Automatic annotation (TrEMBL):
Keywords: DNA-binding. Pfam families: MerR (PF00376), Methyltransf_11 (PF08241). GO terms for molecular function: DNA binding; DNA-binding transcription factor activity; S-adenosylmethionine-dependent methyltransferase activity. PROSITE patterns: HTH_MERR_1, HTH_MERR_2. This is MerR family DNA-binding transcriptional regulator. Residues 13-82 form the HTH merR-type domain. InterPro entries: DNA-bd_dom_put_sf, MerR-type_HTH_dom, MerR_fam, Methyltransf_11, SAM-dependent_MTases_sf.
Length: 380
């Protein structure tokens, strides 16, 4: 048995000292995390000392990783305490953040090299050029995986904003980074993820850290509550929808229809390469059930062939995009199906694109400007 484990325990446990040694942190740090409830091991050794289970170690790994990426303790607590995020989702998120940091560093090195080259040639470097490597243009150029692919699609936005009608006060539930928030209304955003809140651009609507199922607002506080491509992330979608109905006089929700028999065959990606998608939405409420919960009617939302928002179905006429890792990372589906299914789907799609089989199977898509792939707008 490994050093630091309890003899006779059902599963291995590690002492505080052993964990500190493995993680490269001090015992004092671990005690502090215990005191503030961030990582609180409940198991005791035979001598009465606290010990870490495998689950405790996993949580600590996430805490330390986010800390080393620069997150504050409260932000870390929000991240690791998110009930909608499992270990695999944290790994994908951490990977994306690390790649973003690497891109930031690479871009800064490139800017420094340019300045060094200019100075070596005796060229004058302007203050603007000196600050460019730290400024907005650098970060606009490199971005992050999510903000690089998930943005407002104008044609879908028009349909959503038309549904808002003459509402002046808007609550955006599950707001993410702020896509589809109307600029001409008084918007309040709700987003439980600290990572997503941190990616909202400067000047965005004020954002409250809360979950859809428990909105911290009085009854009928807003003209309308909206939710865009987020309901499938909620722990209890029906409860969240009813909360939206409680706090607003009207409700507008962009969601997905799984009522139609064989719905997963509407999209070639789920039909031919990712059958696991059906299991991802196995417990998702029916469209009829969601509509009934808020008294809504449903409108189809066609997806343009050149959709600017990198949602899961966006590239239905641009299949090569699904081979790009940064594109898939902005789609929660891939995290839900797991790496094995993802790698198999990507490999099979790549083979079919190379052989021409994909083009043969989907020749009917070539002339379409938009396609109904199950997106629905619920309007109540």
């Amino acid at each position: 048995m490994a050093s630091g484990c309890i003899v006779g325990a059902v599963e291995d446990h590690w002492t505080v000292g052993r964990v500190a040694e493995l993680a490269g942190v001090s015992v004092r740090t671990l005690h502090h995390y215990d005191e503030i409830g961030l990582v609180r091991p409940l198991t005791r050794t035979a001598a009465g000392y606290r010990a870490y289970s495998a689950g405790d170690v996993e949580r600590l790994r996430e805490v330390l990783a986010y800390r080393r990426l620069g997150f504050g303790l409260q932000e870390v607590a929000d991240l690791v305490g998110d009930p909608s995020t499992d270990a695999v989702a944290h790994l994908h998120r951490l990977r994306g953040l690390l790649l973003e940091q690497r891109d930031h560093a690479d871009a800064m090195v490139a800017a420094i090299d340019r300045e060094l080259e200019a100075r070596a040639k005796g060229l004058k470097v302007t203050p603007e050029e000196q600050l460019e490597m730290l400024g907005a243009r650098l970060y606009d150029a490199i971005g992050s995986a999510y903000t690089a692919t998930r943005r407002t699609e104008p044609r879908i936005a028009t349909q959503i904003w038309d549904a808002l009608g003459d509402a002046q006060t808007v609550l955006n539930v599950g707001a993410g980074t702020g896509s589809y928030e109307p600029a001409d209304r008084n918007v309040t955003a709700v987003e439980p993820s600290a990572v997503m809140r941190g990616q909202r651009p400067a000047g965005s609507a004020p954002c409250v850290a809360a979950a859809a199922e428990s909105l911290p607002f009085e009854d009928q506080s807003f003209d309308v509550a909206m939710a865009v491509s987020t309901v499938h992330h909620w722990g209890d979608p029906i409860a969240g929808l009813r909360e939206m109905r409680r706090v607003a006089r009207r409700v507008v929700v962009l969601t997905f229809d799984t009522d139609e028999p064989g719905w997963q065959d509407r999209f070639w990606l789920t039909r031919d390469y990712l059958p696991e998608f059906a299991a991802v939405l196995a417990d998702f409420p029916s469209l009829a059930g969601m509509a009934d919960a808020i008294g809504a009617r449903a409108e189809p939302v066609p997806i343009p062939w050149d959709c600017a928002d990198g949602l899961f179905e966006a590239y239905w006429r641009r299949p090569g995009a699904y081979l790009e890792d940064h594109v898939r990372r902005a789609m929660s589906v891939w995290t839900r199906v797991g790496p094995e299914a993802e790698q198999r789907a990507v490999r099979s799609l790549s083979d079919d694109l190379d052989s021409g089989r994909w083009a043969e199977r989907n020749s009917d898509l070539a002339g379409l400007d938009a396609k109904d792939l199950g997106l629905r707008l619920l309007i109540a």
